[in-house]
Amino acid sequence: MRYLITTLILCLPMQANAHPHVFIDTGLEFVVDDAGQLTHVRVTWAYDEFYSLLVLEDMKLDQDADGVLTESEERFLTGFDTQWVEGYNGDLVVTADGNHVALSGPMEAQATVEDGRVVTTHLRAVEAGSVAAAALSAKAFDETFYTAYEVTRPVTVTGPAACQIDRFDPDIDGELAQMQAFLLTLDADYDLEENDIPLVGERFATEIRVSCPAT
User: Fold this and answer.
1) How far does CA 46 lie from the centroid of its chain?
2) pTM of the entire structure?
């Protein structure tokens, strides 16, 4: 998807800022209890090579450029992306039977480098303690599309319940065509920052549905 988006960007007016600057490969682990209730979601973010390089250089890590962090470097890196401002949803929306599931802030953060890419994980708890996992939906996206998330890493369910996972990918070509058609109607003087920027992130989000039978 990132290559299609990059091609689109080259065709847009110079002031059109609604395109991704950071690409993240995402993985999700849904933690359920004995009763088939969702209690936690563990999130994996694997940053693109360029952004990873910027992070490592800014934090002065991997100075020998061997692509391997020492234990002390990993500890220093851990948590760099979990200092969230109040109200930030972690670019993750989870619903149960169509109702929003409130999640805690990030816990148990970990970070490392794999093949030149910064990879981090964090755990989020269901604020209500648990919620029925009979009909869960999860989408990882940034509304502003500054960051583009692709669910390319494993999606799993941890727990005793036998759960089904289904994946629904967006119509990337169709959504790109609609975005391009809109942006190409703007003249060069149109300032997206002073006008309403279309919040298109969700339109490019993969939906993960999880169904766990109650016991």
Assistant:
1) 9
2) 0.83
How confident is residue 198, by pLDDT bands cut at 50, 70 and 90?
Answer: low
Q: Are 120 and 81 in contact (CB under 8 A)?
A: yes
Distances (CA, A) of 49 to 9, 118, 195: 19, 8, 32
Burial of residue 146, with CB atoms counted within 10 A of its CB: 0-12 exposed, 13-18 middle, 19 or more buried: middle
Nearest CA to 105 out of 120, 117, 90, 121 is that of 90
Among all chains, which residue has been given the structure tokens 């979601």? Answer: 41
Q: State residue 37 phi and psi, 5-degree precision.
A: -105, 135
Q: What pLDDT is attached to residue 209?
A: 97
Averaged pLDDT, 182-200: 68
DSSP letters for 117-161 = EEEEEEEEEBTTS-EE-SSEEEEE--TT-SEEEE--S-EEEESSS
Pairing of strands 22-32, 155-158: parallel
